Amino acid sequence: MSEELVHLHNVSVGYDEPLIEGINIEIFAGDVIAVLGPSGIGKTSLLRTIAGLIRPLAGEVELAVPSRGGLGYIPQRLGLVGNLTVRGNVEMGTRVGLSRWYPPFVPVPSKQRNYVDQAMVDLGIDHLAEQPVRILSGGQQRRVATAKTVAQRPKLVLADEFLGELDDDNVDIVMRTVNQAIKAENSAMIMVEHHEELAKGVANRIWRITGGRLVEELKR
Ligand SMILES: Nc1ncnc2c1ncn2[C@@H]1O[C@H](COP(=O)(O)OP(=O)(O)O)[C@@H](O)[C@H]1O
Ligand SMILES: [Mg+2]
User: Fold this and answer.
1) 18-28 and 32-36 as β-strands: parallel, antiparallel, unpaired?
2) Which domain holds residue 201?
3) I need a labelling partner for 178 at 20 to 30 A (CA). Which of 39, 119, 120, 189 fits?
């Protein structure tokens, strides 16, 4: 029996009006879930609800991940700091998980420094470590955002269309690294993806948002 990380109890996602209603679903350690559905249907809002960034209109989100650093969120717009170096951005991930705040000019402890170095090597951005993020290509920035989340060692990764606009080599590197991290930490991932074939290739579960409902599809 796999460890339960998230349990949605009759959750409605939305703002003034619900977008998705009656969600009853569990997420287990090891799951890689692809969330599919047309633009504007509420996929990002679902991720934000699970992350606790917006409240469900009804129901309850039960999260069994550490409150500090247990959740890694890769937003569609990546949320990187352009003037900070690649290393500085990746380090921000590890700072989330530390028991006290280390401001950017205070070095992170050596264990976390190792996580940062390892993540940069895994994602092939170690040669860019001292470059400001703003000069990097879109694909390289996406690798930085992934390294930041991997270095954080979260129990649950929420990724919003982060494979979009990546070439095949980048998709391979990013997914291989994330999959390794998920195995190593026995964590889980929910990824919103509009490339269906890509998503189905990497996920073990498929959620389709349709008609205001979340429907789990059998994977074949
Ligand atoms: N903060 C907000 N307040 C009100 N409505 C919002 C807000 N954010 C998104 N929406 C609306 O919710 C709907 C679903 O948006 P979103 O979850 O981003 O969909 P998707 O990610 O599937 O494209 C859209 O109609 C969008 O305009
Ligand atoms: Mg979206």
Assistant:
1) unpaired
2) 1-65+155-220
3) 39
| 44 and 101 housed in the same domain | no
Nearest-atom number in ligand 1 for the CA of 37 is: 22
At 1 the pLDDT is 64
Q: How many domains does the chain have?
A: 2
Among 146, 166, 170, 141, smallest CA distance to 158 is for: 146
Compute the distance between CA of residue 11 and CA of residue 160 in angstroms, rounded to an integer: 20
Which of the ligands is closest to the CA of residue 48? 1
Chain segment 96-145, per-residue pLDDT in tens: 777 666 676 777 888 889 999 999 999 999 999 999 999 999 899 999 99
Residues 137 and 166 in one domain: no
CATH of the domain at 16: 3.40.50.300
Ligand nearest to the CA of 37: 1
